[in-house]
Design brief:
With about 450 residues, this protein is mainly alpha-helical. It contains 17 helices and six strands. The strands form three sheets. A two-stranded antiparallel sheet has the order 1-2. A two-stranded parallel sheet has the order 3-4. The protein has a two-stranded antiparallel ribbon with strand order 5-6. Strand 1 and strand 2 form a beta hairpin. The site of arginine has 10 residues, from helix 5.
Length: about 450
């Protein structure tokens, strides 16, 4: 590699061409309205920029890495296409406010894409939840079977995580939605600059209040990266559960063939590679956040070339996150649940012990005491190699005289049904939560 390549960003900032051209078109129009350039020149510039866009989209644009970045490539091509009028486009503008503008426009767009993709995953969660709305499974704490929960309740836990992610991305949108154009290199511009017009043309709700801040602020990128890191953490946790659940040991689910791969040596294998890769790619997404935080930490005001390093990690996070969300929507939609197995395990291994203690509380035994009694009972059952339901009433009575026949009415289903408070796993609550989630998905169609 020759050192002249060191400063080149063209291979990655190319992806901002639509934003860059839209920004330039608005800027040319603004300059003409203010009388800084003539209407004819503005028309030439706008037509030329549209041709540039067509060329890029038709893959016939003559990219030239000796011109370093996207902005210089477009301006140079504009010269070739329309002649000297091209030289008037950069009046009252710097690449510093130009790139800040491109990045903000791009961020707003990808937030819309991200929210849409998150909605897709949520839709898959709710659809599978509705399909299996009555299925009870063991819920875990410390990776130990703890209490029965509805499978749909488990899925809706992720729905809530993704709801918070959407909230975070939308919050980030507000910060990205501020127009930096008109800040010049750092101090503002000497030409009449109608920033309100620019904001309207480019669909920005706000206008930056300080030119020095505007050209060197990348908080909106950091916020996307942080929200993306949190979202990948959620996806990674789900990926981990899908890996566990699809193992022989759990045997809860089977992933669709297209989301597993075989082993090159072991013919029997169906590896959950997609879920594993999602878990693994989370590392990169975290790294991208730390990378940009570190780039920013020592920067004096205002623009410094270090800021060019805001892009690759950001684009990588966007691509990784959008791809992972698409994979999860498919993986969730395609998995099959072993209803018999999860149902049978929902009551096994003393998962109903809390309910047995609650039963004694119903007989006026203080909870602490009941807890101790049932702990003894479980230890005894375990020593006999039995489940609680295999014990006789006499066995129960050896631990407390308060037990009677009704203790055998405790089932995984009754256990779930008893958790009938806001946020609990009672089937009626979960049915309502599913309906609410469905309604939210129907009504909230706005991207950001
Ligand atoms: N490629 C640069 C970046 O991404 C564009 C701005 C360059 N400005 C400058 N003064 N060199 O940050």
């Amino acid at each position: 590699m020759s050192i002249s390549h060191y400063t080149v960003s063209l291979h990655y900032d190319r992806r901002l061409y639509r934003q860059d051209i839209a920004g330039s078109i608005a800027h040319a129009r603004m300059l003409a309205r203010a009388g800084t350039i003539t209407g004819e020149d503005a028309d030439l510039i706008v037509d030329g920029l549209k041709r540039v866009r067509q060329e890029i989209e038709a893959d016939s644009f003559p990219w030239d890495t000796s011109l370093e970045d996207l902005h210089m490539n477009i301006e140079s091509r504009l010269h070739q296409l329309i002649g000297p009028a091209a030289g008037r486009l950069h009046t009252g503008r710097s690449r510093n406010d130009q790139i800040a503008l491109d990045m903000r426009m791009y961020t707003k767009e990808v937030i819309d894409d991200t929210v849409r993709a998150l909605r897709g995953v949520q839709r898959a969660l709710v659809a599978r939840g509705q399909e299996f709305r009555d299925v009870v499974m063991p819920g875990y704490t410390h990776m130990q079977r703890a209490q029965p929960v509805l499978f749909a309740h488990h899925l809706l836990a992720y729905f809530q995580m993704f709801e918070r992610d959407i909230d975070r991305f939308r919050d980030c949108y507000k910060r990205a939605d501020v127009l930096p154009l008109g800040s010049g290199a750092l101090a503002g511009v000497t030409y009449p600059t109608d920033r309100e017009f620019l904001a309207r043309e480019l669909n920005f709700s706000g206008i930056s209040a300080n030119s020095m801040d505007a050209v060197s602020d990348r908080d909106f990128v950091l916020e996307y990266l942080a929200s993306g890191a949190t979202c990948m953490m959620h996806l990674s946790r789900m990926g981990e559960e899908l890996v566990l659940w699809s193992s022989r040991e759990f045997g809860f689910i089977r992933l669709a063939e297209e989301f597993t791969t075989g082993s090159s040596i072991m013919p029997q294998k169906r590896n959950p590679d997609f879920a594993e890769l999602a878990r693994g790619k989370t590392g990169r997404v975290y790294g991208n956040l730390m990378g940009l935080l570190t780039v920013m930490k020592g920067l004096p005001l205002t623009y410094n070339r270090d800021l060019q390093e805001d892009k690759e990690g950001f684009f990588d996070t966007v691509d990784t996150l959008l791809a992972t969300l698409e994979v999860f929507q498919g993986m969730l939609s395609g998995l099959s649940l072993d209803v018999k197995r999860v149902t049978s395990l929902a009551a096994a291994s003393y998962v109903l012990a809390t309910d047995v203690a609650d039963y004694l509380v119903g007989k006026e035994v203080p909870f602490r005491e009941a807890h101790g009694i049932v702990a003894e009972l479980c230890r005894y059952a375990e020593s006999q190699g039995k489940e609680l339901e295999d014990l006789s009433l006499e066995d129960y009575r050896r631990f407390s005289p308060h037990f009677d026949q009704e203790v055998f009415h405790i089932t995984a289903r009754s256990s779930a049904a008893a958790r009938d408070n806001i946020g609990g796993t009672a089937p009626d609550r979960v049915a309502k939560a599913l309906n609410q989630a469905e309604k939210l998905l129907e009504e909230d169609t706005d991207g950001h």
